[in-house]
Amino acid sequence: MVRPRTLGELKKSNYRSESVKDEMRRNLLRKLESNEPIFPGIIGFDDTVIPQISNAVLSRHNFILLGLRGQAKSRILRSLVMLLDEEVPFIAGCEINDDPLEPICRACHQRLEECGDATPIDYLSQEQRFVEKLATPDVTIADIIGDLDPIKAARGGHALSSELTIHYGLLPRANRGIFAINELPDLAGKIQVGLFNIMQEGDVQIKGYPVRLPLDVALVFTANPEDYTARGKIITPLKDRIGSEIRTHYPSAIEHGMAITAQEAWTDRESDARPLIPQFVREVIESIAFEARQEKKIDKRSGVSQRMPITCLENVVSNAERRALRNRESKAVARLADVYAALPSLTGKFELEYEGEIKGADSVAREIIRAATARVFKKYFDGVPLHPIVQWFELGGNLKYAEGAPAEEIFGQFKKIQGLLERTQPLGVKPKDDPAMLVAAAEFVLEGLYALKKISRNEELGYHVEHRRAEPAAEEPGPVSSRRRPLN
Fold first, then answer.
1. In the chain, where the domains are located
2. How do residues 86-96 score in pLDDT, each as one tens digit?
3. Per-residue pLDDT tens for 173-204?
4. Contact call for residues 219 and 199 (beta carbons, < 8 A)
5. Fewest CB within 10 angstroms: 64, 112, 139, 481, which?
């Protein structure tokens, strides 16, 4: 189908103007009726956040997403473009994407008077109709609304008070689209005033000159509750004009978190050592984030971003890849040792309370890994008899190996421990499987026993059992009549 290229052709095509919010509402209704996913790739919000966003869109509200860092707020805002039409017409060359049938800027009005139905038409794609701004304290009203341009005035011979001299800011350039502001509380109060004025009344003042700009735009924002006191606040009149406040959250189930991490982490790599990530390693990595969000030594107001398990998994794969290439192995199987090697990807992702600051970020991270390992270990080995393995260590056995040792070498040492390789079956690993996978599973068993304090581990002895010296038994007190009297 040939697209109209002039205003006259557009009129003949029976095109009807429609506001952005009506357009988003129409497309959302279509998705709901056909059971299409509204925001593909957004996991864990199906019963909470997404229904609330749907209600806001159906109500034609401007809305704000309120939540801690790493809760997919920005990703949701960018996904809103999928509720827009694939393309819409605008007057070619217009700085603010004027609707050919309902222009709002002075330049377009003059152009229509000159060209009439021959006025050229161009088209905006979905992506071009989304404008995003990260709020920072140095943002000015000129950045958002616009400013007078003396050069335009001089070249065109216009008075400075003329609309033809305006250099438009980001908000007018988002006309007929979506304008998103991330971290709204960081925006200075006077800039927020400019926002709610144009949201409600559709007019602004630029350098003291009143300008009428009835923009057609959907405004969406994000904010972190911590920022309300840490860096700024949203002024009350602006909050009053935001239709819906929607709270985001971290994944409520391990499965949701693992799905997000698997989707976002870069693990599909081209390498001579093919990366393999056992399921139990993925579960430990995801459980680290869940444990960190409950840890008293970590500041809960700051939150623990979903980026933590994502970067951790990437580091785990990298460490396994490096070890495999160094040992000339064809498979890079991730192990629990790789999780400890990924500490640098964890310690920068949380803020510590006073007690945590005393212990140090590395120590807190190691405790969290241990707790996460115990959580996953109990899931697989609840009721599984492991006393033969513990007994081997209690009889004086100890196991020490270099973290970067080849899988075959470690496998030979694991075979000496009675029952160890046989106990990997709850993990879906059988004694006849690949040695690298058996090593990863057996190491998880040992780490699980260590996490539950059944055995010990240190750099000097490796895995072992600490034998305490037997203390002399206290003398049992006998009957009073049989006690020996002290000599005088």
1. 7-135+174-191+216-247, 254-464
2. 999 999 999 89
3. 999 999 999 999 988 888 888 787 777 776 66
4. yes
5. 481
Question: Could you say which residues of the chain have pLDDT below 50?
Answer: 228-230, 469-470, 476-488
Q: How far apart are CA 404 and CA 111, in angstroms?
A: 72
Reference 99, options 70, 125, 121, 129; nearest CA is 121
Alpha-carbon distance of 99 to 175, in angstroms, equals 9
C-alpha distances (whole Å) from 277 to each of 160, 379, 381, 398, 436 are 65, 18, 20, 27, 11
pTM, two decimal places:
0.86
Task: Give the E-state strand segments of 251-333 in sequence order.
Answer: 274-276, 331-333
Q: For residue 333, give the nearest of 458, 414, 415, 443 by alpha carbon.
A: 443
CATH of domain 7-135+174-191+216-247: 3.40.50
Q: Which of 336, 338, 312 is nearest to 451 (CA)?
A: 336
The stretches of 295-417 forming alpha helices (DSSP H) are: 307-326, 336-341, 354-359, 361-381, 387-394, 407-414
Residue 424: CB atoms within 10 A of its CB come to 24
Contact 81, 127 (CB under 8 A): yes
Instruction: Report the C-alpha gap between 399 and 443 in whole angstroms.
Output: 11
Q: Which residues of 202-231 are buried (b: 16+ CB within 10 A; e: fewer)?
A: eebebeeeebebebbbbbbbbbbebbeeee
